[in-house]
Design goal:
alpha+beta, NADH Oxidase, 7 helices, globular
Amino acid sequence: MKLNLSADEVLTTTRAVRKRLDFDRPVEDAVLKECLEYAVQAPTGSNSQAWQWLVVTDAAKRQALADIYRKGWAIYQTLDGNAATAYSGDDAERLAQQGRVSESASYLAANFEKVPAMVIPCLPGRLDGLPNMAATSMYGSIHPGAWSFMLAARERGLGTAWTTIHLMHEEEAAEVLGIPFDAVSQCALITVGYTLGTDFKPAKRPPIETVLHWDSWGGEAP
């Protein structure tokens, strides 16, 4: 089922969905593959097309990944800049929004194994310690495809969330999934499931003028 959203609607309503996932409804293999067909239409650095995509629907492996995720989650909660502390200003509306994000992230961690499908985008080689130019080039070859997958999922009534916490124990996850750790880097874990309702709206964001620089770091937009 497609929602027939416009490009602008898809771009402004593709949320990180956690609490509104339908844990009881499986995601069809054909739908996942269709979304990935759009993912591989995205550009890659030097047209490398080196991406690999690992889809996980097996219940035992989802449970194993959930156990790994929750180990990382326990660490993440102690770090500065976690979901609860990422915003430290005095905007009451922003603080309330951050509280909701933290609550939904905690909910996902507690129910991780219930997520019907997980997609792990991968790239060849180890990306640890690369110079900035090389690292951004490599990640720039996976992020557009992953976002295209998430947009395609939204159009089909699926909710997604980009997570990276399992990468605190990436080698353990690689062992669970049979990924050759020395030769392949996992770049994220995207949770996927049908949503409870499809009425997602644009998020409240700061005015673009507060984050925009023109021609120089201190340059104001025309």
